């Protein structure tokens, strides 16, 4: 397993492992959500429903090449684009669980 | 007069034995369900007997009424079969309904017993839940008709419709499935992605599988990884049963693992978009089948080999015709309790409100879209009029328009800022999450036609709120 290459981001700066893309920012999250139903980014709403959430989690897993171990409390925070960006920054900064 | 019950809604001659004979029969050790862990027939019969005992002690008897407000779970299956075994009428309430919606439904249905769950459910992409079910007697009424199951639709005007089906109709639907090519065969597996509380997952999934001896597997979560793990967990030929969203989700995986046991995916509801269907079949190398059905009837037509897309062949025993561009289904009696609306059912024909055509030469039918304001949100039917009426009735709302453009979107005139700020919270009390607008635009005024009618065109509405997405 790759070791983190950057110091822990205590001020909201995500850590990043070698070879793994940075945690998605807002525009990237919106772009991934827009992929469902082939919408334009402008058609993506702030609120994320459970179908979009399943879609988003899968897109992030594809992009980062690892499974995200998201417990229920974490998933509950991902019901808005803002919440999803925050959560993804946190969980992608953690070492992969496998 | 075998269809006496259908015609009059009077109690039916059928005894509750159908549950034992058609659903629960089988070898004790035969694994029939997989809800996180395997459930064999002995365990299922035990769970059903346990719930039957509880329901009987609360006074539920043949001809009685019970409402289940349970999420997909073994407890739901056990209570459903137990109530049917008693000969009671079961009302199925989606667990996502708000307390307000549930109370209104219970006022309407007046069940004698309500089975609910204790505690709060964990959130997040679950296909099933481990819940502790709690049954309570209430001051309700026995069933007024001989129907085995009743469900509420999202209503377009005022209260929602009560849709009811008899045990005979459920059995007839199971029989339709058994007479079609392309359905899972005894000894095979179904990984169910659709809700087991709604008609596709309930009859096409749960009841068909129990009857036929097909193992019904619910994945741990509705993520690609968990779905494919559920498929990989068994060797028997496996069918995925879901809605178009699930196809699109799975098709987004560019390199799915080799799963030789995966035989087919079948979806209900609207048609999977052509490019998604192509991507899915390219990536998984399996057949993508399609079904069309309604809560009122169950499965109506299928294209289980994906060979007629976008058309479908009516299921065995189903007669479809086209009238003024609308699809009509032959049904001996109205599926609605307490509704005599000739726009919905008349003279043995159910009006689907789906536009469509029937090819007189081949008998193939094609669904061309809705004729009313009903939309599908992840396979769940939502009537935009219900959302619009709910919003318009909230304090401070002068007028409102609700439209659908990839998601439910609302535009409302609310002059008072405090009332406007409270709208989202008020809606969350009155509407289940899947019915709520994904975007709520507070506008100074709504565009109207020259005759004063509200305009529903999304492009025109956008001009009312400059901040709305184009």
Automatic annotation (TrEMBL), chain A:
Entry superkingdom: Bacteria
Tell me what this protein is called: Acyl carrier protein
In terms of SUPFAM superfamilies, this protein maps to: ACP-like
Return the annotated region ranges for Disordered. Answer: 1-23
């Amino acid at each position: 397993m790759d070791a983190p290459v950057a110091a822990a981001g205590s001020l909201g700066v995500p850590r990043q492992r070698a070879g793994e893309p940075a945690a998605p920012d807002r525009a990237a999250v919106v772009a991934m959500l827009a992929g469902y139903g082939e919408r334009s980014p402008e058609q993506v709403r702030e609120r994320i429903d459970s179908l979009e959430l399943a879609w988003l989690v899968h897109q992030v897993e594809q992009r980062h090449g690892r499974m995200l171990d998201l417990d229920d409390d974490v998933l509950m925070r991902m019901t808005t684009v803002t919440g999803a960006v925050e959560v993804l920054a946190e969980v992608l900064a953690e070492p992969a669980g496998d | 007069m075998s269809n006496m019950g259908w015609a009059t809604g009077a109690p039916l001659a059928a005894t509750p034995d159908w549950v034992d004979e058609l659903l629960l029969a089988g070898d004790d050790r035969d694994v029939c369900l997989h809800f996180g862990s395997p459930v064999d027939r002995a365990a299922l019969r035990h769970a059903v007997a346990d719930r039957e005992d509880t329901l009987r002690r609360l006074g539920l008897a043949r001809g009685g009424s019970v409402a289940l407000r349970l999420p997909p779970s073994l407890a739901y299956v056990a209570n459903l079969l137990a109530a049917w075994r008693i000969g009671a009428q079961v009302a199925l309430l989606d667990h996502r309904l708000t307390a307000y919606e549930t109370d209104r439904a219970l006022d309407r249905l007046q069940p004698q017993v309500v089975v609910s769950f204790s505690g709060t459910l964990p959130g997040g992409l679950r296909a099933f839940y481990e819940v502790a079910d709690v049954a309570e007697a209430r001051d309700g009424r026995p069933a007024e008709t001989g129907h085995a199951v009743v469900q509420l639709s999202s209503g377009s005007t005022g209260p929602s419709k009560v849709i009811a089906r008899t045990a005979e109709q459920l059995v007839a639907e199971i029989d339709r499935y058994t007479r079609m090519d392309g359905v899972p065969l005894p000894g095979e597996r179904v990984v169910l992605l659709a809700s087991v509380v709604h008609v596709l997952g309930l009859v096409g999934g749960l009841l068909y599988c129990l009857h036929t001896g097909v193992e019904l597997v619910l994945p741990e979560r509705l993520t690609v990884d968990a779905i494919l793990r559920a498929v990989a967990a068994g060797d028997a030929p496996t069918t995925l049963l879901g809605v178009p969203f699930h196809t699109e989700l799975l098709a987004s995986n560019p390199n799915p693992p080799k799963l030789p046991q995966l035989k087919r995916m079948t979806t209900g509801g609207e048609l999977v978009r052509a490019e998604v269907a192509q991507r899915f079949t390219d990536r998984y190398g399996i057949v993508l089948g399609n079904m069309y059905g309604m809560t009122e009837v169950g499965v109506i037509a299928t294209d289980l080999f994906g060979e007629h897309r976008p058309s479908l062949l009516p299921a065995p025993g189903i007669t479809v015709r086209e009238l003024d561009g609308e699809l009509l289904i032959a049904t001996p009696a109205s599926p609605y309790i307490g509704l005599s609306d000739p726009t919905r059912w008349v003279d043995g024909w159910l009006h689907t409100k789906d536009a469509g055509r029937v090819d007189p030469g081949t008998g193939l039918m094609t669904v061309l879209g809705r004729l009313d304001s009903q939309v599908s949100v992840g396979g769940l039917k939502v009537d935009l009029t219900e959302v619009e009426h709910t919003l318009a009735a909230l304090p401070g709302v002068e007028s409102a328009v609700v439209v659908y453009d990839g998601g439910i979107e609302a535009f409302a005139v609310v002059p008072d800022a405090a009332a406007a700020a409270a709208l989202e919270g008020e809606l969350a009390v009155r509407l289940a999450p899947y019915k709520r607008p994904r975007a709520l635009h507070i506008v100074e005024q709504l565009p109207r036609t020259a005759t004063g009618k509200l305009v529903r065109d999304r492009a025109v509405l956008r001009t009312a709120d400059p901040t709305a997405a184009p």
